[in-house]
Amino acid sequence: MLLGSIEAGGTKFVCAVGNEDYQVKEQIQYPTTTPEETIQRSIDFFKKYPDLRAISVASFGPIEIRKNTEKYGYITDTPKVGWSQTNFLGMLQKAFDLPIYWTTDVNGSAYGEYTLALASGNQIDALTYYTIGTGVGAGTILNGQFIGTLGHPEVGHVRLKRHPDDLDFKGICPYHGDCLEGLVAGPTFEARTGKKGQDIPLSDHVWDIMAYYVAQAALQTTLHIRPQKIVFGGGVVSETFLKKVRHEFATLMNDYQDVGDLEDYITMPIAENNGSATIGNFALAYREVKSADN
Amino acid sequence: MLLGSIEAGGTKFVCAVGNEDYQVKEQIQYPTTTPEETIQRSIDFFKKYPDLRAISVASFGPIEIRKNTEKYGYITDTPKVGWSQTNFLGMLQKAFDLPIYWTTDVNGSAYGEYTLALASGNQIDALTYYTIGTGVGAGTILNGQFIGTLGHPEVGHVRLKRHPDDLDFKGICPYHGDCLEGLVAGPTFEARTGKKGQDIPLSDHVWDIMAYYVAQAALQTTLHIRPQKIVFGGGVVSETFLKKVRHEFATLMNDYQDVGDLEDYITMPIAENNGSATIGNFALAYREVKSADN
């Protein structure tokens, strides 16, 4: 069975065709330009596969996910120039008479990691996926459904206890200054130090400050949602960095609640090369086919 | 149909018998002493009703809610003297051959408010109930199920951005110092001012500080879970206080996400006289009967 995946990022699009075993048959990626041009390229790509059974889209946002609203399937008020009020799903539906699943980029990745965890024999009912990159976001899958009723989660904008060595940094979020995203998104490295994150050795103290904040985000997720696993992806994340995050998390938790082995609880993605969302899309598209068959 | 409710608090127990229309037939309350004595009093109360069809317990915690564990139905490691490792559910099961539902106090209240919202014609799929009293906790009902897989939520222990006028206050949580509970639980009034909360007029600046923290908790819930309603109960909460909370919430959100009318979003309980948990228990007990019938 052929299934389509669109991972729609603010910088680039990754489109793939694969099967229900999550094997990629063909994949393309290209920069995000105008909505018309960028979405048309994904349409052209999928048109080569007349046997496609369903498509799933994991999109940057904010997006409208409430099916009972007029704007369902839209990218709504995004800072990405030219993309506000884009009827993304509508453009796809015009081009394809297929079931199309619509969710956020991080929900797609969460579903991919959840699918891979289940496939590897892990009994998981709830998993949260964070991305720490140009922006910060998270998605949670709980008993097969995404958390988010009034809209999708936007955890990048929670507030945090400031690190004592970071009190003078005002944060870079245009809406909130020192929210989570304003304190740990990739561009904060340059704002704090004048250097890019990749040029700052992990032994530098700025990484401890970052870990303190990311650990607070993990703590919030733990105490609000109690998932069985929190996966961190995105350009800022590495295994060495997560070691620091686990250390800060344990200090913050202070043995109050048991989350099991921290190495299994706070982890890198199972999918390699940022492939979580593509796998999630294949799994979600497959689910759409099955539910259409029933 | 007769249904039983136990609202098991650290200070007092409230036991009630009622029906599937949430009408109380008889209710008793008594102080929480030893586990044996306190639970036996609830057993004696329900024994007067041989037609009882099910019981639901909304208990203080932490409690074990994972059915596949040995300690399911226990109060686990609680600071409440004498109550650690109490097999609460086991004692009830020994006394009654009935379906017994087991959950946290705040989950019981969340379910009560969810039930009342639905009964009043409100289309609600997700609702969070906070208690701000001796302690701080929250429960969330999402599509008929409680959020919490690895255990129940423990949102009282998240960290917050400190209010600039409150930086010297260390907080009162024995585990974490200045976590949410350590900053806003009832006893913080005395720790900060030497006076009890009820003796401090709502015009005092300490209430603005409290509102700033409680608004951050509401913001976390909003951005992690996106429920349609957040209900605040507990001794610290009043409508006048919630006005301040809504104001701080709006400032923190800075129009980033729309949650609708804040008066409908951040609210006092519908149930009067702290009755949310009793109504939730009746509804949960009724659900147990129906699911046993199927």
UniProtKB/TrEMBL annotation, chains A, B:
Presence of keyword Kinase: yes
MF-aspect GO terms: ATP binding; fructokinase activity; metal ion binding
Pfam families attached to this UniProt entry: ROK
Keyword Magnesium: yes
Stretches that traverse the bilayer: none
Catalysed reactions, as listed in the record: D-fructose + ATP = D-fructose 6-phosphate + ADP + H(+)
Protein's recorded name: Fructokinase
